[in-house]
Structures are given as structure tokens and as C-alpha cells.
Amino acid sequence: QLQVVESGGGLVQPGGSLRLSCAASGFTVDFYAIAWFRQAPGKEREGISCISSSDDSTYYVDSVKGRFTISRDNAKNTVSLQMNSLKPEDTADYYCAADGSRVEGCGLGVHEYDYWGHGTQVTVSS
Fold first, then answer.
1. How many of the other CB atoms lie within 10 Å of CB of 88?
2. pLDDT tens readout for residues 68-103
């Protein structure tokens, strides 16, 4: 059974950092495109970053570019999202998702991903 589980969320002050982790089971992350999404209260779920399976190329939406870094640890079978310089507007539930059908690259569309975790909550507040 393919499964991803997020961890690492919490409460942090503006300007602080958090590191989210996406642990995979039932498949190897090296062969899947992995993306992070977030959903703030009352808003649609949005893709913020992804890493491809083919060449580890990474993509970020403008709102997190330069502050967030996605990375893969094949030995631990995890994908992490390092979040720095956090802002109150980063407050949301964060989700990890996996796509095994893509040959190269990765996307940030919700419909592109087959396997989803239950999310981890991030609150940025003083």
C-alpha cells in the first residue's frame, strides 16, 4: 500500500523556520515526482514546490521562492521542505503528494498527484 505521511508542522514566530518531512512507504521516492501543497482556511489547495523523479529538478511558486527548499533523501525515503523566513501568510495545512506516472519534470496541479498524506499544520504567528 502506497502511503505518504507528513510531519514537522507547528507554531512558529514570523521570520522563523520549520522543516517538514514527507515519509513514503510502499514505494521509493526516487522514482516518483513529489510535491508539497498547502491549504489555508477558506482557500483552495495550492501547489508550492515539487521535485522531479528524473533529474531532481525543483520548482517553486513565486510566493515561496528563495525561502523554501525541497529536497529528497533516498536513504531515508523521505522528501523534506525547509521553510525559512516564514510569514503569517504561510499559515496553512501542508500536504505531501506523490506521482508515479510522470516521466520527467513535475507539476503543481492537484489533479496530477495520486497519493496524498493527511497533512501537517503550520501556524506562523507572534
1. 11
2. 999 999 999 999 999 999 999 999 999 999 998 887
Model confidence pLDDT, tens digit, residues 9-58: 999 999 999 999 999 999 999 999 999 999 999 999 999 999 998 788 99
32 burial level (CB within 10 Å; 0-12, 13-18, 19+) = buried
Answer left, alpha or beta for residue 74, where phi above 0 means left and psi between -120 and 50 means alpha.
alpha
Burial of 40 (0-12, 13-18, 19+ CB in 10 A): middle
Hey, is 30 helix, strand or coil? helix
CB 59 within 8 A of CB 3: no
Where are any strands of DSSP class E within 13-112?
A: 18-25, 33-39, 46-51, 58-60, 68-73, 78-83, 92-99
Going by C-alpha positions, the residue among 77, 64, 1 that lies closest to residue 37 is 64
